[in-house]
Amino acid sequence: MTYDLRRLRLKRLIQRVPKSHRYVFTPAGRRVALFFSKSYTRLVRPVLDRLEPDLPDDASDSLRQAWEACERAFENAINEARIAA
Questions:
Q1: Which residues share a beta bridge with 23?
Q2: pLDDT given at position 59
Q3: Residue 34: HSE in the Cβ half-sphere, 13 Å Cα cutoff
Q4: 9, 17, 38, 79: which could join 22 in a potential S-S bond, CB 3.0 to 4.6 Å?
Q5: pLDDT per residue over 8-64, tens digit each?
Q6: Contact 14, 23 (CB under 8 A)
Q7: Is pTM beyond 0.70 here?
Q8: Which residues 6+ apart lie within 8 Å of 59 measured at CB?
Q9: Cβ 26 vs Cβ 44: under 8 Å
Q10: At residue 85, does pLDDT exceed 60?
Q11: What string of H, E and C letters represents the secondary structure of the chain?
Q12: Residue 12, CA atoms < 13 Å, CB-side half-sphere
């Protein structure tokens, strides 16, 4: 934990409260935290939801098609490696 706090402090995302063991966000740290929080909510989570394997196949979703093609390529590479070994 000390290492992480030190790295955040050196990047000026947090600052230590004098005479205590507490830290608070700097204005820049608050903006960074808000950016990551909002980008996860608006971008990462919806994209990962589209890749959920339990959902029915949707041929029009190019992201899902690309993901399935990547999975097939990995499976083929694994199978070929087992044959060659």
A1: 16
A2: 60
A3: 7
A4: 17
A5: 999 999 999 999 999 999 999 999 999 999 999 999 998 888 887 776 766 677 888
A6: yes
A7: no
A8: 65
A9: no
A10: no
A11: CHHHHHHHHHCCCEEECCCCCCEEECHHHHHHHHHHHHHHHHHHHHHHHHCCCCCCCCCCCHHHHHHHHHHHHHHHHHHHHHHHC
A12: 2
Is it the case that residue 84 has pLDDT exceeding 70?
Answer: no
| Between 4 and 68, the higher pLDDT residue | 4
In angstroms and rounded to an integer, the radius of gyration of the C-alpha atoms of the chain is: 22
Using left for φ > 0, alpha for ψ between -120 and 50, and beta otherwise, residue 4 falls in: alpha
